[in-house]
Design a protein that fits this description.
eight-stranded mixed beta sheet
Length: about 280
């Protein structure tokens, strides 16, 4: 669904998706979902009969979590990519869930009437949008009065680690720069409160969700530090080199330094932000 930042008509739900759509990205999203399920979703719950809209479901990594944790809710998951929707549908079916309906839809122009849903769930979507406030206004329009929205986003600028390495930070900033050039914001996690207030939501509450990985947590080092975060940064290598942000040697040394933080004596820290509000 990539689109130049100036492409402001017929925008897909993720017009600035800088991570790509190959098999490795699908694997990275799976690793991320598995590593973070308890951290991000221990308080995600929608009750029996609830109508839930998942906006920007992608290939369904979060959809299966919603379906499992909210088995009596009716979930409608939308995305503009037909390929992603097909992958998500296959994933949910393989997991044995029947409480999810998939539909192609643009988050800026949703095919639903006012107050069609009790709840809206948005995860790792807004960082890719050039108009996140407009997207949330469109989503607020389909939530019933008093219904809820949940938004989860990361913040690439929140990463810090041991051993400290300026090259690793330079590689991370390549992602931040490329996402900004595509119209998105890799630092959007820290903006969730003013963004939701600006979109007209009430009772906005934001909680930081802190990822910590060290040698005593080798699974988190592998699934998050190596296979989620470092893989995400490595995924912008070609775009970073083409833009002249770093040369190949410098970028590769930055990735090597990030992998070094996942060694037994390394430490990696990162913050996600989870916001809830009422329409």
């Amino acid at each position: 669904m990539p689109c130049a930042a100036s492409c402001l008509t017929d925008l897909p739900v993720r017009e600035g998706y800088v991570h790509g759509y190959g098999d490795r990205e699908h694997e990275r999203l799976d690793d991320q979902a598995g590593a973070l399920v308890d951290l991000l979703h221990h308080d995600t719950s929608y009750g029996e009969g609830s109508e839930v809209l998942e906006a920007g479901c992608g290939t369904g990594a979060q959809t299966v979590i919603l379906a499992e944790r909210c088995p009596l809710a009716r979930i409608t998951s939308v995305d503009l990519s037909e390929a992603s929707l097909a992958a998500a549908q296959q994933r949910v079916a393989a997991a044995g869930f029947s409480n999810v309906t998939f539909r192609s839809a643009d988050v800026y122009d949703l095919p639903f009437g006012p107050a069609a849903f009790d709840h809206v769930f948005v995860c790792f979507l807004l960082e890719h949008l050039s108009r996140p406030v407009e997207a949330m206004q469109a989503l607020r329009a389909v939530v019933r009065p008093g219904g809820t929205v949940t938004v989860i986003e990361g913040d690439a600028g929140s990463a810090y680690f041991h051993p400290e390495d300026p090259g690793a930070h330079a590689a991370i900033h390549c992602l931040i720069d490329r996402q900004a050039a595509a119209g998105g914001d890799a630092l959007i996690g820290r903006r969730l409160y003013p963004l939701l207030v600006g979109a007209g939501f009430a009772e906005v509450e934001v909680s930081p969700r802190f990822v910590y990985a060290d040698g005593g947590r080798p699974d988190m080092q592998d699934r998050f530090t190596r296979r989620t975060f470092t893989a995400m940064i490595a995924g912008v290598r070609d775009a970073a080199l083409e833009a002249g942000l770093l040369d190949a040697a410098a970028f590769d040394l930055g990735i090597e330094a990030l992998h070094r933080t996942a060694e037994p004596d390394g430490v990696f820290c990162f913050t996600f932000f989870k916001a809830t509000a009422r329409g």
